[in-house]
Amino acid sequence: MVQYLRFFLSDQQVISAIREGNDAALKYLYERNLRMIKKYIIQNSGTEPEAAEILQDALIIFWEKVRSGEFTLNSKISTFLFSVARNKWLQELGRKKRFSIIDETQLNSPEDENQEDRIIEQELVDIVKFHMAQLSPLCKKILLLYYYEEKSMNEISKLLGLANENVAKSKKYQCKKELEQLVKAHINETGENYG
């Protein structure tokens, strides 16, 4: 359950935790956003320790805004943190006078704008993996063989000792539907928007 909460708190749940003074929310946000911030900082002439420090600064700003009532949830928290971290890093680069060795176009590349899309995609993969573990052993095997090992329905029926290809197809359909329902229920419950 702890692992589940660690990966799937909604933004509103995080804000509520911060308003209640729960410091664990900061750790949660740090773990969720470090990879994205680290990649950006390193791509733009920074180091891992610098990325960690920039993220900590962004989290303090976010924490203070939420606690003071100044923060309004108009976009995802990750978008806010990335924006603050990016601005702070540009200020830091200016302070160190390192702009001369950085390609300005790289700082504003479309790749930066697609960071959040990649994070969201990874979140969806994590959700699917989490709920795959809840399926029956047979369902897990069928879906893994079909989607990951790209086996034909005929091969799957033989590997799993099913009567024939049609039985395997029918079972795959049922398993896929079950997984879809679990994932949809999870997204509705956490209030995340993956559209």
Written description of the protein model:
This protein folds into 2 domains: 1-110, RNA polymerase sigma factor, region 2, helix turn helix motif (Rna Polymerase Sigma Factor, Chain: A, Orthogonal Bundle), CATH 1.10.1740.10; 114-195, Arc Repressor Mutant, subunit A, CATH 1.10.10.10. By secondary structure, the chain is mostly helical. Mean pLDDT is 78; it is low at 1-6 and 98-105. The protein is built from 11 helices and no strands.
Question: What is the topological layout?
Answer:
Layout: H1 2-8, H2 11-19, H3 24-43, H4 48-68, H5 77-95, H6 104-107, H7 110-113, H8 115-132, H9 137-148, H10 153-159, H11 165-190
Helix pairs in contact: 2-3, 3-4, 3-5, 4-5, 8-11, 9-11, 10-11
Briefly characterize the structure:
This protein is mainly α and 195 residues long.
Task: Please identify which CATH superfamily of the largest domain we are dealing with.
Answer: RNA polymerase sigma factor, region 2, helix turn helix motif
The gross shape turns out to be elongated
Order of helices and strands: HHHHHHHHHHH
Number of contiguous helices: 11
Low-confidence stretches: 1-6, 98-105
Average pLDDT score:
78
What gap, in angstroms, lies between the N and C termini? Answer: 26 Å
Query: What percent of the residues sit in helical stretches (DSSP H or I)?
Result: over 70%
* CATH architecture level-2 label of the largest domain: Orthogonal Bundle
Class based on secondary structure composition and strand pairing: mainly alpha
CA gyration radius, whole angstroms = 22 Å
Topology-level CATH name of the largest domain: Rna Polymerase Sigma Factor, Chain: A
